[in-house]
């Protein structure tokens, strides 16, 4: 390799390293911006609807959504929201209704159900989203949503690590039967794979 070629190679490598560094810093900045478990309270990047009529705060996320979605499917949420709104004028942009004890990821998963990115596609959460939504559906007694979520968890639990997480969360939620079905589905799939490998 000539000196010129070697210099060009060094410059290309330096350029690639600088590009990767910029990309890493950008990705880190985006993750921090969308992390609502810490830092100051701020509008959620996705779930702050201009036409929403209720403003709530979960951890550091300020969410502006439509009240009918929250109250139609859960009597518990309806009571949780309506009482402070009527008595203390909470739930406005100047005074968001604080939701204590919930994880923002659970609310993001719940609102993704009400506000899908593509309205023309059937609701199909990832395994992680379904796991975040499971405690929400159980806590706020959304029976139909709970059934849908548990079905997705059963279908999408594939690894032993996921089985462990499903089992732990099921115990906490007292939904052991759902966990048994998910675990059974994984072991049946494994047996089918073993049988197929032995056959062919």
Task: Characterise the protein shown here.
This protein has 200 residues and is an alpha/beta fold. It has two domains: 38-101, no CATH class; 125-200. It is built from eight helices and four strands; from the N terminus they run αβββααβααααα. The protein has helices at residues 3-33, 67-72, 75-88, 104-114, 127-139, 143-156, 160-173, 176-199; strands at 42-48, 54-58, 61-65, 97-99. Strands 1-3-2-4 form a four-stranded mixed β-sheet, covered by helices on one side. Helix 5 (127-139) packs antiparallel against helix 6 and helix 6 packs parallel to helix 8. The chain is globular, with a radius of gyration of 23 Å. Residues 25-30 have low confidence and may be disordered.
Task: Please describe the structure with a list of short key phrases separated by commas or semicolons.
200 residues, 4 strands, four-stranded mixed sheet
Give a short summary of the structure.
The chain has 200 residues and is an alpha/beta fold. The protein has 8 helices and 4 strands; from the N terminus they run αβββααβααααα. A hairpin with a 2-residue loop joins β2 (54-58) and β3 (61-65).
Structural class, by secondary structure, is alpha/beta
Per DSSP, the total helix count is 8
Helix percent band: 55-70%
Spans of 5+ residues with little confidence (pLDDT < 50)? Answer: 25-30
Strand order, main sheet: write it out. Answer: 1-3-2-4
Order of helices and strands: HEEEHHEHHHHH
Q: What oligomeric state is this?
A: single chain
Distance between the termini: 51 Å
State the major sheet.
4 strands, mixed
Rg result:
23 Å
Task: Count the E strands.
Answer: 4
Average residue-wise pLDDT: 80
Instruction: Supply the number of structural domains.
Output: 2
Pfam families: BTB
Protein name: BTB domain-containing protein
InterPro entries: BTB/POZ_dom (IPR000210), SKP1/BTB/POZ_sf (IPR011333)
Domain BTB: 52-115
């Amino acid at each position: 390799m000539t000196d010129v070629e070697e210099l060009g190679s060094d410059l290309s490598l330096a350029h690639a390293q600088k590009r990767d560094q910029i990309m890493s810093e950008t990705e880190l900045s985006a993750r921090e911006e969308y992390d609502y478990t810490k830092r100051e309270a701020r509008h959620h990047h996705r779930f702050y609807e201009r036409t929403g009529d209720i403003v709530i705060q979960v951890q550091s996320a300020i969410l502006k959504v439509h009240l009918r979605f929250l109250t139609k499917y859960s009597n518990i949420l309806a009571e949780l929201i309506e009482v402070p709104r009527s008595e203390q004028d909470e739930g406005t942009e100047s005074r968001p209704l604080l939701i204590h004890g919930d994880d923002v990821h659970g609310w993001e998963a719940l609102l993704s159900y009400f506000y899908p990115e593509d309205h023309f596609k059937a609701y199909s959460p990832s395994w992680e989203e379904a796991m975040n939504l499971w405690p929400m559906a159980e806590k706020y007694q959304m029976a139909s949503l709970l059934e849908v979520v548990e079905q997705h968890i059963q279908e999408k639990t594939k690894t032993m690590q996921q089985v462990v997480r499903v089992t732990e969360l099921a115990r906490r939620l007292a939904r052991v039967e759902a966990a048994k079905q998910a675990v059974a589905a994984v072991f049946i799939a494994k047996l089918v794979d073993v049988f197929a490998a032995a056959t062919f």
